[in-house]
Amino acid sequence: MAPATISIFILIIWYYRSSVNSTVAYGSAQEEFISRRLSDSETLWKESVLRRHKIEERDPYIVANPWDAGHLVFIWDLFYTTFNCPHQLSRLGRLGDGGKWVCGVSHLRAKKKTGCIIYSFGINGDTSFENDILNKTSCTLRAFDHTVDEKSVPLMKMFPGRSTFRKIGLAAKEDAHGHETSMRTLLSEMKFHGDTFIDILKFDIEGSEFQVLTQLLTDFPNGLPFGQLLIEIHMHRFPAKSNMFKEFRKWWESLEKAGLRALQREPNFYTMYLEKNPSPTHMEFTFLNVQVDHVILHA
To answer: Does the chain have fewer CB atoms within 10 Å around its N or its C terminus?
Structure first.
C-alpha cells in the first residue's frame, strides 16, 4: 500500500474518533437544524484536513518556507477556518488588538439557571472584552493576570458579585520557586474555584499557549472542560524553529483530535506594525469544542 494511501486511511480513522459528539440529543426542528449545521461544518473541516495533508505531501517548498510571501502562501493558509458557528457570531471588545469573536452570545445570556462561567487570562490593563461580555450576558467572569494589580482591573466595582480577579498567570506547570507572582495551571484554578466546566476560556499569554494547551490534553483526558476557546497564537514563539510546519501541524491536530474546531480567526495587524514584522505571526482564533455537550451545540 502506497504511503499516501496509508496516510489517508489513518486520517479517516482519526475523523471517526474526533467527530462531533454523537451523544448530544437533538429533538425539535430547531435542534435538527443545529445538528445539520454542525454536521455540514464537520464535513467541511474534514475536507480541509485532507487538503492540508495532500499539500504537505506534494509541495515541500511550502512546508520548508512557511512565511514566504513570494510563494503567495503562508502557513495560516493551510490552517484556515471551515467550521461555522451554529448561532450568531459576535465580536466583543475594542477594535483591533483586544477584541474577540464569540459564538452564541444570546445563548450564554439565556443560561441563567445553570450558570455561565468565563475565565480570562492575560488582562494586561485592557478589559474591553470582559466589560462587553459581562454587559451582554449573565455570566460570571474570573479574570487573571500576574503582571497587573487589582486596581487596574475595575471589573469588581462595575460588576459586583459577577467578577473576580486573581494576580496569577496561566502555565503548563505550577510555579514552585516561591516567586511573588504565581503561575498556576487551569486544573488548579478550576479546583480552587470549584468549577467543573467553563463556557468560555480566553487567554493571551504571549507564546506560552503551545505548552499550556498541550498540558491541558494531559490534565483533562476525558474531554476539555470548556465550550469555546479564544486565544492569540504567537507563531514567532513556537518552540520548534526547524521543521516548523510539520511540528505546528502535529500540535494543531492534537487540538482537533480533542474536539476543537477553529471557527473564526483575525490577524493582529497592530503587532505587525509595532514589531515591523511583515509576516502575520500573531493570529487570534476562536475554537468551538464539539466533543463535550454544552449550550452552544443546541438551539
So the answer is: N
Half-sphere exposure of 137 (CA within 13 A, CB side): 30
CATH number at residue 62: 3.40.50.150
The answer to whether residues 62 and 71 touch, using CB atoms and an 8 Å cutoff, is yes
Given a contact cutoff of 8 angstroms between Cβ atoms, the answer to whether 189 and 167 are in contact is: no
pLDDT means over runs of 10, the chain (299 residues):
55 56 63 91 93 84 70 76 90 84 89 82 84 91 86 77 89 69 89 95 84 94 96 79 82 94 82 63 90 91
Domain that holds residue 115: 3-297
- For residue 286, give the C-alpha cell: 476562536
* pTM of the full structure: 0.85
Please give the full DSSP string across 100-166, using - where no structure is assigned. EEEE-HHHHHH--SS--EEEEE--TT--HHHHHHHHHS--EEEEE-SSS-GGG-THHHHSTTTEEEE
Structural domains counted in the chain: 1
